Amino acid sequence: MHIESATSSQLVEWEKELSVHYERICQHELSLDITRGKPSAEQLHLSDKLDGILATDYRAADGTDTRNYGGMTGLSCARALGADLLQVPTEEVMAGGNSSLTLMYHAVLTGYLFGFAGNVPWRALESPKFLCPVPGYDRHFTICEQLGIGMLAIPLGKGGPDMECVEKHVREDGDIIGIWCVPKYANPTGITYNRETVERLAQLGQIANPGFRIFWDNAYAVHDLGPSINLASIRAATLENDTVDSVLQFASTSKVTHAGSGIAFVSASSANLDSLKLQMQAMTIGPDKVNQLRHSRFFTECTTLEEHMHKHASILKPKFECVLEHLQNALGDSGMGQWEKPRGGYFVSFNTRPGCAKAVVGLAADAGVKLTPAGATFPYGNDPEDSNIRIAPSFPPLEELDTAMSVFVLCVQLASVRQRLAQCRNASG
Ligand SMILES: Cc1ncc(COP(=O)(O)O)c(C=O)c1O
């Protein structure tokens, strides 16, 4: 039944039934977690041949002894892997440590403390701000919040951020110094930016503060669940618009090999890379080249990137199907929520009826199912509609995910019916 067409007495009955079901589940003392998009143990096993692959042969093809210090930009074979992931020339890639988030943090610090490519440091501005397409990735927002950089939420549609809104802010406010973008299989909505959006983003450099940078976090560049969606090249678009300095691209092997010990990449113009290196070389004498060599050998001797990602997809696909089946079976045509079917990435984004997300997360927690806190996908943890919940299906085994999802949909039903009942009671005075 559609929730809006239920009468008050039907809602009362419905609430009773759901509550009985819910109380029964609470007695099971579950302890399930669908909060973070971590690869499962089964996925991590796919890359276990990394261990021991060097067999004491530490020399890279270019002769570098990877055990020693040096090489700020990373091994050339590792940079080539990053170039493959980001579809850019190897010379424009720097290969770092295990986390692209760390590179993003350093890039924000570089802009904030020193400025990119000779531009004024952001800290010299009155109120430096990032544009934040929402819902988005909470850890991007945490970086800004920690450094006191302001954040403006921008609606994220099916083809990318609302570009009218982005252009208006950038044109009218010279203190806009960045935008967070997850252009392919976005975290959490799963959308991929369309060509028009990519082209309009590439033009921002013509109207923005010269220190403005697009943080192009392509974390899910090769993480397809089926046939790949083609993301237009931001690099090509910036070359056409003479705005190459306006973009910094990021990727990593975190969800390709071992999440805790992969390689992260940043790709940018030489002026931007020089600024980054200047900041980073005060902090390190070079990245873990041994691990970089391991990865390079893994993708030449054991598998190809494409073949490897197919194996990930075959593990992940049934989990996404499980989530979507639960949502469709329990909530399809109920008016209790909306969701998209992602074609890649790590998340399913669910929107409850406005005002219900916190209640759903609370009910699920009391029933032993941990969800990402409501609001986490918005700057400052503030979802003005209290509606968005990010579901991360990758980590738990399928049976646990199945149980967690039956609890989730029950909590959505219960919170929605209780809210609707309260609305009907208020309306009837
Ligand atoms: C959009 C996005 N960027 C970055 C990361 C983290 O990447 P890394 O492990 O390379 O730091 C994640 C992890 O969930 C993510 O979803």
UniProtKB/TrEMBL annotation:
<dbReference type="InterPro" id="IPR015424">
    <property type="entry name" value="PyrdxlP-dep_Trfase"/>
</dbReference>
<keyword id="KW-0032">Aminotransferase</keyword>
<dbReference type="Pfam" id="PF12897">
    <property type="entry name" value="Asp_aminotransf"/>
</dbReference>
<keyword id="KW-0808">Transferase</keyword>
<dbReference type="InterPro" id="IPR015421">
    <property type="entry name" value="PyrdxlP-dep_Trfase_major"/>
</dbReference>
<protein>
    <submittedName>
        <fullName>Aminotransferase class I/II-fold pyridoxal phosphate-dependent enzyme</fullName>
    </submittedName>
</protein>
<dbReference type="InterPro" id="IPR015422">
    <property type="entry name" value="PyrdxlP-dep_Trfase_small"/>
</dbReference>
<dbReference type="InterPro" id="IPR024551">
    <property type="entry name" value="AspAT_Ic"/>
</dbReference>
<dbReference type="GO" id="GO:0008483">
    <property type="term" value="F:transaminase activity"/>
</dbReference>
